[in-house]
Model the fold of this input.
Amino acid sequence: MKKASALSAKDQVQGEDTKYFPQRIEQKWQEIWLKEKIYQPDLHSAKRPYYNLHMFPYPSAEGLHVGNVYAFTGADIHGRFKRMQGFDVFQPFGLDGFGIHSENYALKIGSHPMEQAKKSEKRFYDQVKSLGSGYDWSHILETYDTDYYRWTQWIFIELFKSGLAYRESVGVNFCPSCMTVLADEQVIDGQCERCGAEVEKKELKQWMFRITEYAEQLLEGLDKIDWTEKVKTAQRNWIGKSQGAKITFRVADTDNDLSVFTTRPDTLFGATFMVVSPEHPLVKEWMSNPGVSDYVAKAKIRALEKDLSDREKSGVFSGAYVINPINNQQMPVWIADYVLMSYGTGAIMAVPGHDQRDYEFARKYELPIIQVIQHESANITKEAYTGEGKLINSGEWNGLLAPKDKDKIIAYLQERGLATESTNYHLRDWLISRQRYWGPPIPMIYCEHCAKEGRSWFTSKEGVSSKYLVNRESLQAVQHQTLSTQMPGWYPDENLPIELPYIEDYKPIGASSENSEATSPLGRHPEFYTVNCPSCGKEAKRETDVSDTFLDSAWYFYRYTSTSDNDHAWDEGVGKLWLPPTIYTGGAEHSVLHLLYARFLTKVSHDLGLVDFDEPFPRFFAHGLIIKDGAKMSKSKGNVVVPDEYIKKFGADTLRTYLMFLGPFNMGGDFRDSGIEGMFRFMKRIWVLLSSQTIISKEVDSSAKSEMHKAIKGVTEDIEGFHYNTAIAKIMTYYNFLSEQKEISLTEAKVLLQLLAPFAPHITEELWHRLGEQGSIHTSVWPAFDQKFIESGDTVIAVQINGKLRGTFVLNDPQASQEEVERIAHEDFSVQKHLEGKTIKKAIYVPGKILNFVVAV
RNA sequence: GCCGCGGUGGUGAAAUGGUAUACACGGGGGCCUUAAGAGCCCCUGUUCUAAAAGGACGUGGGGGUUCGAGUCCCCCCCGCGGCACCA
Done:
């Protein structure tokens, strides 16, 4: 018998078969798997459904990125592992192909998005197939497919009917380069997320989704889902709940009220002036006062500047005063742009003694500063004191603790009708319309004739007797009181799909600043937008905006499980069986946008009675980012790693395993060429060991068995916890152990292959068959481990004495009897001290577990 | 500023409170080979000693809990990510 390690070069080239050529086996198995439907569970009758979802990519025409490979592989390993554990794993794939990114690319290379999409699609699918992931290719989807976006449009209509989609003139972020509006989330430091151009502010009529209506639910839901804390925190920050009070001030010598939101009503006695935003409605009344109109004009310009955080505050006295209801003091009202109209009421009570921003403002304009919170570290001659303390100079409140007694103070104000308890969120409504071409047309029709007479869908028979949102009283109120007047003339076009027409002039033309209506490419095509009003039948105009791509991706996981083109998944039994996805894997960069929108739509679907769950992703795992030479990969840096060449040279198995070996899956890693060669060497060694070595059918002897079970246990737990890098290390350790054996039993060989199978599906499948196995390794049963072998050898025994942990020691003999264990405990240095001079009355010994000594006194 | 995550060899990184550095990369030496490549074997935290044996020191810094701390607690320092004139 010859040892594998002693195999010389000659032996290897003797037969082609003894050498590892990934190119020769990978495609072969991919075709067989497809033919044998290894990865296609029966969606109707799965016994243990496991919906293994990962974020679908946008199909960049440059092709697959190594970051995609990383993400897909990590999810695939999880799926393969679960499949081998006996689950009916459903792992679908699709493309998020609509949107600015694809459209801009088409523009750049001078092709049409519709044609480009087909090309990118083919290339992308081919590349993904070469990775050997276990996708069910009979359930793919593309968001630009008519059969897909008819349901995107259907969802839009459902939201419209629910009063959750509405039109409003809003100050929007407008990207002059992309010629479209952007959601707040898509503006980074005042720049467009996509192209980096400086974003402008514009007033435009836009379609909005009332996501703020769900702020509280979106926040509460986070507590019951299994997500990484990092992502939950990002969402909490984004929703930005703060609780406090709304206090109303009377403007002196007028009938006007000025309300403010504050989280610190306890400092009310410290308020010395008021500040309103330049956009505040009351500012109109003060325009003629000296300096006001000048300042408001100046603020408008300043609003476009990007770095707002540390510029000097500025403002102007409005000329008006308000009365502080708590002490009837007159306070001047100032206008300053450090107060934002978009948050709270657009006005604040300034408490310069205890708010640093107000403090700076007061210093600059020489406004009075009063200290109302006493604390040894408070020194308001230098800066505002924002910490806790005892109230002073606060009338009846003196001696109360701030902010601890906030609730008492709110109750006090509330009793006297001076304030109400109030909650504010940073979350804004979701701006959904885009003045672009490459997206699903918004399925709405505007009829001027109906509008003039105040008619709309909301005044129609269906609208009046609406079944929508019966679960949400607050929205019913919105619907019946305001929607019919807010949205005159608007009707959904339920004749879906509203197909996106092929037009040559799809280039964005933007919005003219004089006109409050933005113009979309479709707006140049009367043959598209001229329709008859669904209500009165007269000539009407179809909406020419398309919807935000994030709408497409907020519901796609429902579509995967649908079994026919003419139905949406969640009506069917199949959806009930599979939804929501068992686990969702994806990049943390989507923490806020995509995940929040998907949660919102699912909550709406739940309220509409479409689904019986209200969180789309009960479990979400965020993977890390692959970088190159310490920097994020990007075209501009020229450090994008294209996987094709690596697959060609080393095979998909090596690339997959190498990527997973780089570092913990939730942390990402740095891609290096030298590392991948090491992984290729490992694959070759596995090949040589298991294809050239004589594998014999013999019992595994007991020390080898211990190693085997240790490996199975370690790898199982590591894969379960997404610690892929350590799982691979353990497989390598086990390989090293086996390669030093004189002979390897069939059982050991099979176990080694099975442990490696999720990472390197092709080579393991090939060798599995060479060992004479019949079925696919990927549907074989994941090896079980025996606990007692694991704990042998180097078991650490924890010692409790009378219930308290008193020490631990290494137990070398797994077969040790209870008496021996007691004797060793006595001898062990760390335990000795506690047992000295005492006798053990009772010792409970569970191998590998805790040893509980009851010591006689 | 607030929140979250991290700091361990030359590098990527391992370690339910129990022999710190598993596994791999890189580096050094050797075998094989006409040669190159591939493959195989040995060494590889720092330091003391000519070397070995052996010892000392070592997980960003300082304290603490513990028989025992990379791990738990407190206070700092540094790096990364998110939010940010949010009242």
In short: The CA atoms of residues 415 and 730 of chain A lie 67 Å apart. The two ends of chain A are 63 Å apart (CA to CA). Residues 1-15, 512-516, 789-796, 836-852 of chain A have pLDDT under 50 and may be disordered.
